[in-house]
Amino acid sequence: MERAMNEFASYLRNDKHSSENTVLSYIRDLKGFSRFMQDCGVSDVVKVNYTNIMSYVYELQNQKKAGATVSRNIASIRAFYSYLIKQGEVVENPALNLELPKVEKKMPGVLALDKVERLLDQPQSTEPKGIRDKAMLELLYATGIRVSELISLKVSDVNLNLEYIRCATERKSRIIPIGSQAKAALKKYMEKGRSALILTEDEQMLFVNCNGKSMTRQGFWKIIKCYAKKAGINEDINPHMLRHSFAAHLIENGADLKSVQEMLGHSDISTTQIYIKLTNQKLKNVYAKAHPRA
Questions:
Q1: 102-126 pLDDT, tens digit each
Q2: pLDDT in tens, 176-225
Q3: In CA terms, which of 44, 76, 79, 272 is 20 to 30 Å from 158?
Q4: Strand residues in the chain grouped as ranges (E)
Q5: By percentage, how much of the chain surpasses pLDDT 90?
Q6: Cα–Cα distance between 146 and 164 in angstroms, integer?
Q7: Domain boundaries, the chain
Q8: In terms of Cα–Cα distance, which of 75, 74, 68 is closest to 102?
Q9: DSSP 3-state assignment of 120?
Q10: What is the CATH number of domain 113-288?
Q11: Which CATH architecture fits 2-86?
Q12: What is the rounded distance in angstroms from the CA atom of residue 227 to the CA atom of residue 222?
């Protein structure tokens, strides 16, 4: 099964042009499934059947895995066998008729505006690291881009004169405006901070770590956790929370859903609609607390 998984990973990278995070997610799920199958005495992908996969699903549920986790595992196994069918290694998909468990959509975590401002005020913009951190935080909140998109930005993706960044992937790209504060922080970083951090003048990546190498997701995660602690923010903050806050605050202040969808890069507007529900819930809470006859 390991050989087939390695070939599947190559197919995802080279043919489907999936992101590295997507590939790793698929393989992580499949490795867990493979270990379970081996414990059951099944090591050949051809011999796996519907009952085997159902047993694995029951095992995940017994481990109290979340519905979303179980659904993702089923989707990974289903995609794996769809690939094997294309390769002619199996004739049918044993996961095809598996019913996905119902997943309750969690409301995204959003920071109140005052907490966002406290967080963005934490970096000390008197030395290169602080100037960089300030630019990254301001840009993340100003544009709502994903952390993976933030750390993948190149210098050529920034247009300070026209006040926008270009967020590009292998499949598509989008232009996102930046506000005055994000522009100022980014301008200061590109003029005063970045040159002290990069190792060579021909470095293309916009943000680098203190060793002059490309910033990683884990590195930025530590940065935002550190500043959240300094700001006295008690929520279990994560980088994606600034993306959620960006969207929720825009809609709360009257931005139309289609524009927010385009800036976030959502392919389906239903994904963006959850922020309307979030705003409506906030209004209900305000009403319940403030109205004398609520």
A1: 765 665 577 788 888 999 999 988 8
A2: 889 899 999 999 999 999 999 999 999 999 999 999 998 888 899 899 89
A3: 272
A4: 158-159, 164-168, 173-177
A5: 47
A6: 16
A7: 2-86, 113-288
A8: 68
A9: helix
A10: 1.10.443.10
A11: Orthogonal Bundle (1.10)
A12: 9
